[in-house]
Amino acid sequence: MDSKGYSGTQYRPLSDDQLKAIHESSLTILEKTGFTFESGLDETLEMVQKAGAKLDRERARIRFPRDLITTEVAKAPDRVVLYGREGAKDLDLGEHRVHMGTGGAAIKILDLETGEARATTLNDLHQLARLVDKLDNIHFFLRPCIPTDIPEAEYDVNVFYASLRATAKHVMGGVNDVDGLNQVIELASIIAGGREELKKTPFISVIAGFAISPLKLCTQSTLIMQEAARNGIPVALSCAPMAGSTSPLTMAGTLAQLHAEQMAGIAVCQLTNPGAPLLYGGIPGMANLHTMGYLGGAVECGIMNAAVHQLSHYIGVPNYNSSGLTDSKIPDTQAGWEKGITTLLAAMGGSNYVHHAAGMLESMIAVAYEQFVIDDEIIGMCCKVLRGIEVDAEHLALDVIDSVGPGSNFMTTDHTLRHMHTEYFGGNGVSDRKSRIKWEKGGALDARSRARRIVAKILAAEEKSYISEAQDQLIRGRFNVLLGN
Amino acid sequence: MFDLKAVADAVITGNEAELAELVRTALDRGVPAKRIMDEGLLAGMDTVGDRMESEEMFIPEVLKAARAMGSVLKTLVPLLAEEDVGVAGSVLIGTVKGDLHDIGKNLVKMMLEGAGFKVFDLGVDVGPEKFLAEIRAGSPGLICLSSLLTTTMPMMKKVVDIISEHGFRDRVKIMVGGAPVTQEFADRIGADGFAADAGSAVKLAKTILGQATNL
């Protein structure tokens, strides 16, 4: 059962008036308060100033007139296609079509044997990509963890190589700097069979955390964002304010600031290369008021992430955001309720590209192999909700009701047989529905243990490489690939 | 040589028309009815049973297979009698008095027929005297009692008792089932077996009657 691309917006937390009020507030923020910046962005600032922005170098402030913002934002495409390879379906992002997948930059992983939280490795990243390739409800692979066992300078190429080798689904990741981005583009071009081919059907994309909330341009990430725009590589404009620390505590204030940050970033991209494909990337989160650290599993994150899609759709740009975060350290019941609720809200909210939705634990710090299997099931169920109920002659089944007759049963009718594989969500096998006796006979396994078994089964299969031998040789000749053959 | 695997496959897919055609052809080619039964039909139902256990097949698909098998058995059973081969066994089944639930009972009945048993279905709300009367008249090897209500479970004990009181206890095996029924309950009332679902019921019936014929 294909779960991707169904339409949301059954849940709309903001009314039309509230939407307008926030949008207008965001324009005011950009006009009145503006952004600040660090050194290294002279060219970018000049470009924006030439287009009409008010630059105050002394106080390190740049303010954007609303007309400038409105004009530039209108140039961003309302539809962005993120491609897969070898028959893996592409992600057609736009309107309210929903896609969900992995994400994060975790540095810890729960060891599959011992359950202990240990540092993430390049091999973990590779194995997770192999695992995700076989989980049908995870629609894309956004690098979920950092390969802490290799030098930082080697991250970019190695993250993308390990991912592209193991999965044909669309691959997205961050890069260290502009140099790193260009190396990744070169790597992907080898696989695509040329730069133009890659540009035509980009099967990679990047994240650029261009803004450090509140309202500050990050030099490195802004340059990366512009370089991606120049090269036609889809880029997600990531901003992640924490309500109460880097944005106002209140949801409306956080949304207004976030929407302002997004529109500024979109304007910069469109000034750099009009029509550049990008994703509105606001991820509203909350500060944990006990520690001031990041809080991802709160129900308000679900509410705000749904509102973010309303805002991005208001300005006609496909959006990237989050769901499925939890503050639990292990795949337990808390992880279940936090992920279930936030992912359902994101799906019903209609967000186009929801990352973090599979695998994450401990508010983005950790991942666990078995969590991906569990989250695949959750995502599948949430996307099924978007398919609603089919009501037509075939589904109303009046003739079946009449021919079966009162007092009889529907177990063997052709109608039952015709619909039994498609009417209800099937799942990947992790949900247990056996009788108690059968469940006990099978070892009385809980969800986490059952998920572990599914992971073991998938990873035990022979490895399939989505990079040909010839391409692999070229790549290893050109780059320092640290993943073994 | 006629390939009986095709017969088994037609059982698995539940294709009644194709199965009937294949069996007809096999008989025309001189394949003994018992071989068709064992290597074709029962082999197919065994696979269906396994796939039901492993949850690869849904119950409606299983029933479709059982129904195809059941319709073909009508042709085959007289021929088996001619060849002097017994069917797997003779079973009496019913939902006990006071209880009108029959889906589970019907499922077990269809599965037993699919496994080659001859099943006499007494329906629902069946009193102990009726079970006794049928045992006197027919000599079934296995009695299957079904109950969905905790309030009607005691009726099962009444059936076991009436059979014992009239001296038929060692001539029949008694198996019980139904959502509230447990192994512990079955042991307490002196039944020979308990099955938690239709698949297990068939397995247990084969075991119980297999043991009985070895006596």
List the topology elements:
The complex is a heterodimer of chains A (485) and B (215).
Chain A: E1 6-7, H1 16-33, E2 35-37, H2 42-50, E3 54-56, E4 61-63, H3 66-73, E5 79-82, E6 91-94, E7 97-98, E8 100-102, E9 108-110, E10 117-119, H4 122-133, E11 141-142, H5 155-166, E12 171-174, H6 178-192, H7 195-200, E13 204-208, E14 211-212, E15 216-217, H8 219-230, E16 235-239, E17 242-243, H9 251-272, E18 278-282, E19 285-287, E20 294-295, H10 299-314, E21 320-322, H11 333-349, E22 353-358, E23 360-361, E24 366-368, H12 369-385, H13 393-396, H14 398-404, H15 414-419, H16 436-441, H17 447-460, H18 469-478
Parallel strand pairs in A: 2-15, 8-22, 9-24, 11-12, 12-13, 13-16, 16-18, 17-19, 21-22
Antiparallel strand pairs in A: 1-7, 2-4, 3-4, 5-6, 9-10, 14-15, 19-20, 23-24
Helix pairs in contact in A: 1-9, 3-9, 4-5, 5-6, 8-9, 10-11, 11-12, 12-17
Chain B: H1 5-13, H2 16-28, H3 33-53, H4 59-82, E1 89-95, H5 103-114, E2 117-121, H6 128-138, E3 142-146, H7 153-165, E4 173-177, H8 183-189, E5 193-194, H9 198-213
Parallel strand pairs in B: 1-2, 1-3, 3-4, 4-5
Helix pairs in contact in B: 1-2, 1-3, 1-4, 2-4, 3-4, 4-5, 5-9, 6-7
How would you portray this structure in words?
The complex is a heterodimer of chains A (485) and B (215). By secondary structure, chain A is of the alpha/beta class. Chain A contains 18 helices and 24 strands. In chain A, a hairpin with an 8-residue loop joins β5 (79-82) and β6. In chain A, α3 (66-73) packs across α9, α11 (333-349) runs parallel beside α12 (369-385) and α12 packs across α17 (447-460). Chain A has a five-stranded mixed beta sheet. Chain A is globular and about 80 Å long. Chain A has one domain (1-388, 425-485): Trimethylamine methyltransferase-like (TIM Barrel). Chain B has 215 residues and is α/β, with parallel strands linked by helices. Chain B has two domains: 5-82, Methyltransferase, Methionine Synthase (B12-binding Domains), Chain A, domain 1; 89-208, Rossmann fold. Helices cover 59% and strands 11% of the residues of chain B. Chain B is built from nine helices and five strands; from the N terminus they run ααααβαβαβαβαβα. Chain B has helices at 5-13, 16-28, 33-53, 59-82, 103-114, 128-138, 153-165, 183-189, 198-213; strands at residues 89-95, 117-121, 142-146, 173-177, 193-194. Chain B has a five-stranded parallel beta sheet, sandwiched between helices. In chain B, α8 links the parallel β4 (173-177) and β5. In chain B, α1 packs antiparallel against α2 and α4 (59-82) crosses α5. In chain B, 44% of the residues are buried. The A-B interface holds A 409, 411-412, 416-417, 420, 435, 437-438 and B 58-61, 63-64, 67, 103, 106-107, 196-197.
